[in-house]
Design goal:
The protein is mainly α. It has a domain of 50 residues. The protein is rod-shaped, with a radius of gyration of 33 Å. The termini are far apart. This is Bublin coiled-coil protein. InterPro entries: BBLN_eukaryota.
Length: 94
Amino acid sequence: MSGPNGDPHVTLGPAGRDGGDEDGDGFGEEEYAAINSMLDQISSCLDHLEEKNDHLHACLKELLESNRQTRLEFQQQSEQHSTGADMQGPQPPV
């Protein structure tokens, strides 16, 4: 149904028009079927991209929360370490 670039194979009659087109609108059933197929493919690709985007968004939120938690733990350890050093007072020279 599709060519190497995803373009539909549409056979045209004389003067570049579908030989079976009796309405005179320039499009026959093959053209409409090809357009519908391409729209279905586009819709499917967009759905897939939306799923990937949602998954990526969830992963990034998880990473952000993990980084926040790690930063808070590091700050708490740093505060405890500095508070512990202050309570011990200055160390006498050796």
